[in-house]
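To illustrate this point, what follows is a protein record of this kind.

___
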Amino acid sequence: MMTRETLTMPPISVPFAPGIYKFVAGIPLAVFAGLALSWGAKNLRRAVQMCLGSAPLPVGSSAPFVVAGAVIAALALGVGCFMLFFLVALETTRPTLISEAGIAVGQGPPFYRARQIAWPDVRKVTC
C-alpha cells in the first residue's frame, strides 16, 4: 500500500549580487564616493564662503565663476551620494527567497521592508 507523502520544496535563495560583484564593484564605488563627497563638500564650503564674503575671491575671478564652481561642487556631491547609496544597496540588500508560500523579495534600502508575493498573485515568471 502506497502512502501519500507531502513533498516540501526547500527555499531557493537568489542573491541581489554575487559576492564577487560586491567585491569588484564595491571597492571602486567606495573610493569614488569618498573622493566625490570629500571634493564636493570642500569646494562647496569654499564657494559659499566666497559668496558670503568671508573668504577672498581668487585673483582674476568674479562672482559668476564662484556660482558656477558651487554648482559643479553640488553636482559632485550628488554623484557621490548616489554612489554611496548604490554601495549600501549592493552590500546590504537581502536575497530574494522563492518558497512554497511564494516569493519574498529581498529587503533593501531605503526602507528595508521585505515584500511577500503569494503564488496566486504571480502572473508571469521569466528567467
